[in-house]
Amino acid sequence: xxxxxxxxxxxxxxxxxxxxxxxxxxxxxxxxxxxxxxxxxxxxxxxxxxxxxxxxxxxxxxxxxxxxxxxxxxxxxxxxxxxxxxxxxxxxxxxxxxxxxxxxxxxxxxxxxxxxxxxxxxxxxxxxxxxxxxxxxxxxxxxxxxxxxxxxxxxxxxxxxxxxxxxxxxxxxxxxxxxxxxxxxxxxxxxxxxxxxxxxxxxxxxxxxxxxxxxxxxxxxxxxxxxxxxxxxxxxxxxxxxxxxxxxxxxxxxxxxxxxxxxxxxxxxxxxxxxxxxxxxxxxxxxxxxxxxxxxxxxxxxxxxxxxxxxxxxxxxxxxxxxxxxxxxxxxxxxxxxxxxxxxxxxxxxxxxxxxxxxxxxxxxxxxxxxxxxxxxxxxxxxxxxxx
Amino acid sequence: xxxxxxxxxxxxxxxxxxxxxxxxxxxxxxxxxxxxxxxxxxxxxxxxxxxxxxxxxxxxxxxxxxxxxxxxxxxxxxxxxxxxxxxxxxxxxxxxxxxxxxxxxxxxxxxxxxxxxxxxxxxxx
Lengths: 388, 125
Known about the structure:
The structure holds 2 protein chains of 2 kinds. By secondary structure, chain A is an alpha/beta fold. In chain A, about 35% of the residues lie in helices and about 20% in strands. A 9-stranded mixed beta sheet of chain A has the order 3-2-4-7-1-8-11-10-9, sandwiched between helices. In chain A, strands 5-6 form a two-stranded antiparallel sheet. In chain A, a hairpin with a 2-residue loop joins strand 5 (about 200) and strand 6. In chain A, helix 6 packs across helix 10. Chain B is mainly beta. Chain B is built from 1 helix and 8 strands; from the N terminus they run H-E-E-E-E-E-E-E-E. Chain B is about 10% helix and about 45% strand. In chain B, a hairpin with a 2-residue loop joins strand 7 (about 105-115) and strand 8 (about 115-125). The mean pLDDT of chain B is about 90. The interface of A and B includes residues 135, 158, 199 and 200 of A.
């Protein structure tokens, strides 16, 4: 697939924000528009990822409110809801819209508020997240998202794929990376014992194995190649953007220790981009819980099955490793404002490919990927980017 | 056109201590969760049977930070149980018992949560 490129990106700091969803998104959008050097009237469409506008922020139908607040009413706006993969799916829709010849320049991004600043309790916010689980087979059992990923982790540990200490190494690495990222929710470094000794959320997941409840927004200006080259000296080409869905509910996943949804999206994306997993120089992946990062690396073929834990402890995924993973700090440290996460991953990969990540910059990457997961493995989007 | 109500048929069977299982007439694929077309061969011809709710714990966790206090106080143990034949079902584990992967369990209770039937598994005796 050819034809679309990134001309500009930006994101808000991730953390707690006491502003409205349109105000929060506009901060990121204005930054991306300015970064691209595009005039607001040139934007043909807006795709917006948002998951819990109705459940947490009492605001459905967010698209027109955001476009109006930005001052670009009239254009087609589509809100995309795909749980935690909402804005990477919005990005994929934007790519398809340009490829179909229906738009030249598209603003795409995501926004979410899930932090304590929403005024809701942890249980209330956990319950809102729970609405992305199956209403007949999952929700009535009291299953939480941490519980779903814990059951996957316990199966993987049972099969000898990794250990709790190796899971902890993911958190340690991502907190270190987050400490170098001024937009990260958590900036503190931690050690393996901090993870292992933190309170249990759902065994084997401890508090430091889990991403936080975060507020934030992220935005990307995507353009047909000829417009991208007009706007930017060095646009980043989108080589592919692919989605797959998995068998739901959770008990129908064929193998709980293999993220087949991620594997399928990855295979499609790598094939469409005509690259191999070994071509990837930097990856932002969906480490909502530490075992997810390990299983995602194996599903994508970046690591052989059962080796990601050892590779992480050996440092292969750190900033100067053979395949740096989550240089931004990932969901674990940078934070997880659900609907904003997918395009925030894209913001980081774009900045890495532009070599503008300061002291968390990986060494001259040419190919970067993002992998975003929706729900308890129900969907995944993988997108491949090429440096200018 | 016929609108199916298979989810309630599943719940009704569960209240009678039986697991409703659909088996594809064409390829033999089995599932507790209702499907319209078989995800393996896309046949729409199914046989329904009911199975004794005994099986083996495929995976489990004990949830300490709960989402809905009306369902359970913490800790809440949940498991995916693999029935003989291979179909799997998510349920709760009886709080006084606990379980590990590989344990044999049987259905010992049904919790009614907002009109939905939740299977509760316990030690197989």
